[in-house]
Amino acid sequence: MSQKTKPRIRNIPQTTLRRLRTIPTYFFLIWRWTWWFFALAWIMLSPQKPTPLLLLLLGITFIQSLVVTLYAPVFKIFLPGLPWKNKESKPGIIKERGAKRERSILRERKRPQPVAADEDPEILPALARSSNPYKDIAIYGLDVIICGLAMYFSAVYAPPPFGRGSPFYRYGFSPVFVAGFTYHYRGGLAAAIGYDLFVLLGLFLPPPMAHLPYIFQPQDLLGSVLDVLLVALFTAYAATLLNSITRTKRHEQDSVRRQRSLLHVSETLVAGASDIQQLLQQNVKQIRQGGHFEHLMVALISYGGESNNPQPQIDMYVESGRIEATLPDTSETLIKQAAQSGEKLVIFEPLDRWGQEEPGGIARFYLPVTKERQVYMVLGAESTRKTPFEERQENFLKIVGPLLTVALENVRLTEQTADLAAAAERGRIAREIHDGIAQLIYMLSLNSETCATLLKRIADATTEESLMLAPVAERLDKLVTISKQALWETRHYMFTLKPLMSGTTTLTQMLTNQLREFEAISGLPVRLEVEGAEVSPNGDQRRMRKTAQVGTAIFRITQEALTNAYKHAGANQIEVHLLHLPEYVEVEISDDGKGIHAVPHSYDLGADGEQQRMYSGHGLRGMRERAEELGGTLEVRQKATGGTSILAHIPI
Predict the structure, then answer these.
(1) Across residues 555-582, what is the average pLDDT?
(2) Which residue, 15, 85, 163, 330, is the most exposed by fewest CB within 10 angstroms?
């Protein structure tokens, strides 16, 4: 038996045990049942036979005690799974009017629950409370009336015929405990006075069944009247003191949670993280617990649209926790609203808690964090509360925001430092190639062309020698072609190593220089068409980096397509079409060469049993991967007029 009981005791949540230790409102249940059994023993063990009225009073008070016990919030801690009336969820429509907006929200009613495991809950009322004060007054008043009537009609066994002469006298103190714990001095004294009225009623109008002679004694009246008043005062004082202690402990726990959260953010600030996503995921849960929020969101903001009117957009979104309610998720809309206005949003959406003990609502708070006069990040917090968020929650987010901004900027600077170091090394290697092997290959190409030209002149001078020199001329022509291809390959590697999109260089300028050099080396005419204008990042660092990444990918794809067309396609002309739009960049490279017959989404480029080498599988795979890494697409198409077209579409 004990082996089955131990796991159940161990499985009791710490929050439940903490409530039982710190919230003594269940004392009134112990008092009520103890004195009910005392009245039962008094009546049953009395020499006089119990009258039907006394038995009826025992039954009524038993039912009353049972209902009150089941209706007490502290009793529901032990049996949270039962279908209590106040826990049933009924949908309701709530209309919320904000700044120029009105919306209907379907919500699920749920009692607020503590988020942190180490939180001391507020003192529960002795009886469940509703949002209707008149209903509460009726319930508490009915409890006092039933106890007063039980005391009045049962004072028939011993003098005095009121108060202490009744077996239910001390049983009737329990409504005073209830009112004192719930409404403190006003409620306790009101219940005590109401109960004393029944004492006075027994003094001036004894109960009908009281036949024992009684001589009035002042101490009987004073004892019966003052007892309940002193109980009311003591209960109200104890409840006030416990509330004060609980609030103090909650403030201390909140302070510890905030300090722990700030310490975690500071440690991350010192230790650093590998990327921004990892940094946010490491800190968002700690921030949520530190601020005691049910739902916390961190949104990094970027700006897009026209350069003269940039619009804030959510660049990265990380969240922790969730409010358990079936309602439309408006978090992103409110985050954009806070980013657009640059001002904090404090929203409290009251819930019409039909059948609930206490009123409450959804508290929302959105704080924009600015950097260089632009909203850099928005912190959003949501919780189910009785009141809107207080100043301490706002101050906590105001402290966390700059710390998180510094940590994010440290990660960005670390990434930029690594990129700059890699770019510097690539630049050094590119210079070595340019000053070494590229010069040698260029001289080889130049000398090969010179030799081929001289040999052609000699062959044109005499017919006999032309026949003898024909094989040499053919070999020299191949050598010239190979040397040009080697020179373009070398330049290709140099461009791959060299940093791109540096300074004020635009994508159009990069492609123009690239095509001009390709024409000079290959001798193939290339025509460039540019449609639209490049969108300026307008000082947005994230958009600037994204634009540089897209420009680099477009440059590399064009470079690889030109290389394949020059080496394998046998083209006579190449066309490059560059399209700039606010949301994406598109480039199409087409030639009039031999064409390609490729199976869609396959890199096996063989056709008709013959392995075609116009576009290598590795080159196509590399181009496709460059586009897909940035969320874009790449298509290779056979032109109806002959030749091949490569279309890359990459969003900004």
Answers:
(1) 85
(2) 85
